[in-house]
């Protein structure tokens, strides 16, 4: 495994891995849905140019994917959005061969991506390629079970609406107040509505929001952080929700809860994105 990195823009990631296998075997692991599921995630369809597919990780995380180009045993080019919101990243998987070995190179670019996010993404791609190499050399599944962190973000246009203000929180975040204080975080999905108690609410207007969400019968709380940062085009709203492996619940129950909360955060980010665009078009409320 190698992290082949050359002089690239700060918002660009390039990593690669080499395995002692012919291109045909590696190409199958990159394109066949049942093989991709062994090291990355579940595709709902084959990667076909001009088509939209979903890459689902089974824990609430997913990418909406638009496939641009597929050249057999050569390259796959696509764009994707994590949780279906936020900026799209342009991704290319390239395949080359030399002396009976095949090399997979990943290029991932997104203009304006901050350096800290680029570093995290590079580490993530190195991990995925390690899993690909393990699957290819052993024939076994190398896919991770589920992620500890729910995270994501949305890019908001410049305008008068600010998501991290007392009067704007409920425009996008599924919370309700009692006696003037935020009290409940709501999750509504196919299993029906459910509310979870909020603790330790701390809002710094236009900058950050932190709070804890209590899960019944759990021995610990989960913790949420929302950050708003200025960008050239407007602002970036980023969320993080942690603590799922520390609840003291069974693995299946903890994973199920994470899945439900990931869906709630996905919907919240989409609402924030939609609200920001609508208010930017219509002007001050």
Automatic annotation (TrEMBL):
Residues 21-136 form the Activator of Hsp90 ATPase homologue 1/2-like C-terminal domain. Pfam families: AHSA1. SUPFAM superfamilies: Bet v1-like. InterPro entries: ASHA1/2-like_C (IPR013538), START-like_dom_sf (IPR023393). Belongs to the AHA1 family. This is Activator of Hsp90 ATPase homologue 1/2-like C-terminal domain-containing protein.
């Amino acid at each position: 495994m190698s992290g082949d990195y050359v002089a690239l823009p700060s918002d660009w990631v390039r990593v690669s891995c080499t395995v002692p296998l012919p291109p045909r075997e590696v190409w199958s692991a990159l394109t066949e849905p049942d093989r991709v599921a062994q090291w990355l995630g579940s595709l709902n369809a084959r990667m076909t140019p001009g088509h939209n597919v979903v890459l689902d990780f089974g824990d609430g995380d997913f990418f909406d994917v638009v496939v641009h180009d597929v050249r057999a045993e050569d390259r796959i080019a696509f764009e994707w959005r994590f949780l279906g919101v936020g900026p799209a990243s342009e991704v290319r998987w390239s395949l080359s061969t030399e002396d009976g070995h095949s090399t997979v190179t990943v290029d991932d670019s997104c203009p304006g991506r901050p350096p800290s996010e680029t570093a995290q993404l590079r580490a993530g791609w190195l991990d995925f390629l390690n899993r690909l190499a393990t699957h290819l050399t052993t024939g076994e599944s190398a896919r991770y079970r589920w992620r500890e962190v729910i995270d994501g973000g949305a890019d908001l246009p410049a305008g008068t609406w600010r998501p991290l203000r007392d009067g704007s929180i409920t425009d996008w975040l599924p919370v309700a107040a009692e006696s003037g204080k935020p009290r409940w975080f709501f999750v509504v999905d196919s299993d029906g509505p459910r509310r979870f108690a909020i603790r330790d609410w701390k809002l710094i207007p236009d900058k950050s929001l932190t709070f804890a969400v209590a899960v019944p019968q759990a021995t610990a709380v989960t913790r949420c952080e929302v950050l708003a940062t200025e960008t050239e085009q407007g602002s970036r709203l980023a969320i993080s929700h942690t603590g799922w492996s520390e609840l003291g619940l069974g693995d299946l129950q903890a994973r199920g809860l994470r899945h439900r909360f990931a869906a709630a955060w996905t919907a919240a980010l989409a609402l924030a994105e939609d609200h920001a665009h609508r208010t930017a078009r219509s002007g001050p409320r």
